[in-house]
Protein: Guanylate kinase
Amino acid sequence: MDQHTGNLFILSAPSGAGKSSLYKALLKADDKVRISVSHTTRAPRTGEEHGREYYFVDHESFLDMIAEDAFFEHAQVFDNYYGTSKASIFSLLEQGLDVILEIDWQGARQVRQLYPNAIGIFILPPSLQALEERLKGRATDADNVIQRRMSEAVSEMSHYHEYDFVIVNEDFETALSEMSAIFTAMRTKTAVMQQKNGNLINDLLSL
Ligand code: 5GP
Structure:
């Protein structure tokens, strides 16, 4: 197979839409996909591990990274800073792996500017009620925090139309197969196949 750069995917959703369960299932099922681990200044939630969900850093270290131009994109999302380091994505793409950036709409806009081939996927919950239940079910935040997150969710969802694909996560398996179909379709685009299978195409046309 010829040298080929992986695809860069942007995955956005309001908190509580089930985005993490979806990408985790996709990562398990597809060994050509990796998730970029972001840096954040927010505190870890119960069960989260440094280096797995996020690199948890303090405000000062985050500002140092901005000054060192270490970020591909970064944004203030509500009360905290979040950013994708350049180091976390380029080596993976160069290995031909598809990389998922799990970022908000502000980061997505920056990535589209820098990397126009990035493919945006937005995950919607099936209803506001389901979203609220999922936020409550997680039980990691107090009630007033949940109400605030609901309005933050609506604000995030208002940007859904800036993305190439939209998935409604009503039934998990359906949503997963839709997401998987998008990854497969993007890998078989003509321009990608020309890069990936250039030798084969030359052979086939050389009679
Ligand atoms: P949470 O704190 O619930 O993990 O994430 C809050 C929001 O920050 C989500 O919308 C998530 O997509 C976004 N986010 C997480 N990592 C990044 C990042 O590296 N860059 C940007 N721009 N947003 C991020």
Q: What stands out?
A: Strands lie at 8-12, 33-35, 38-40, 54-56, 71-77, 80-85, 98-102, 119-124, 165-168. Residues 26 and 180 are 7 Å apart (CA to CA).
